[in-house]
């Protein structure tokens, strides 16, 4: 890529304020800035504080990335002070308020952008922030959508929308064949939720669908070799420019930047590495369920017992938000001591990419959030899939049935449909069985490991010079040079 020419470009990136959305946007910022473009990434004070390590590292690197901190009007929106991220919501009932509240950033953002020289050339905005369409229109710049999930999921929801299935099917648990897919896949509406379908979300839903259809292109954290037929079909159906630019996590090359992803780590990564060093290659199971999943105490205890019964070394992440007095008591009154010789419990945010990239890791029990899956694919780690909600059931099918690199735990009912006192979605036997099947040294396990390793090779190649994702970023920059704000290009030599 011609670095001098791209220096005329100024991208404005707007992630939804949720951990899983911010992480790949920061990586996207880096991928553009490394090619000489200027990037402004919009954030808020609480999120900027979380990203401090990342922001400091970018400053040191001299990359032209600017983090734009806009005040988030919590009080005005009806949110508790400092509630600037989905993982900080006091309860689910506030979710819509938070989504609506991002809209209040429109004025301050417009003012900021109007004052910038060179003027912003192109906007890349999260699907969940449809108000950004008005900003882009006002400032006359092209707007691209950033899709966080797999292309497979985006394609499935697109097909369901196009065929009017969401409106037609009223039973959340009726299995539905997704039309037009190259292979047949069935999901219930609960497992393949469309965009903001719940009652009360109608306005946001129609704005999001509108902003999606009017965007000029789509940037995705996936790669051509991972889901080629789905990317192709989605491109054909939408007629849009699609740029698959992942796995974005591969931008983090050294341990310090791997450890700085997402949130402040609750444990010094050197300690985790020390722990992993003493383990045999591919012997450790890593269990972690992303930033938003809130596992009920009884289920957590069941997971712990399953890990204990598996006799396999493990690292298990329990989030702060999941640590009830009951869970803490259970951990400290016996469990941690019983497993101390082979289990490490991390309480809080874990340096996941550091862990997954270590040769001692042999499997990953995951909620199937797309960032986690891309991180596991990049590291060549096979998975136990345990979806909770959103895109996760669809991602599970991709991992287990299409790519053949996962063992399903067998959960069919999404988490939001479970009650506090429902029996655990998977019990200790299910967990023990899945762990021994995944870590098994027999033929089935070997085949799975081989496929995971091959896929990791493809992921790495996609991101190297001449690789598909590298080329797609170059095409995206070229597109912006051709379609971006013309006055930017005229003013500079
Ligand atoms: C991220 O860090 C903040 C501040 O320490 C914490 O409140 C929040 O729960 C963390 N999020 C996750 C998903 O761990």
From TrEMBL:
Recorded superkingdom: Eukaryota
Keywords, comma-separated and alphabetical: Glycosyltransferase, Transferase
Annotated GO MF terms: UDP-glucosyltransferase activity
Keyword Transferase appears in the UniProt entry: yes
UniProt EC number: 2.4.1.-
Glycosyltransferase N-terminal domain ranges (all copies): 11-248
Protein family membership: Belongs to the UDP-glycosyltransferase family.
Listed name of the protein: Glycosyltransferase
Organism: Phoenix dactylifera
Encoding gene per record: LOC103708833
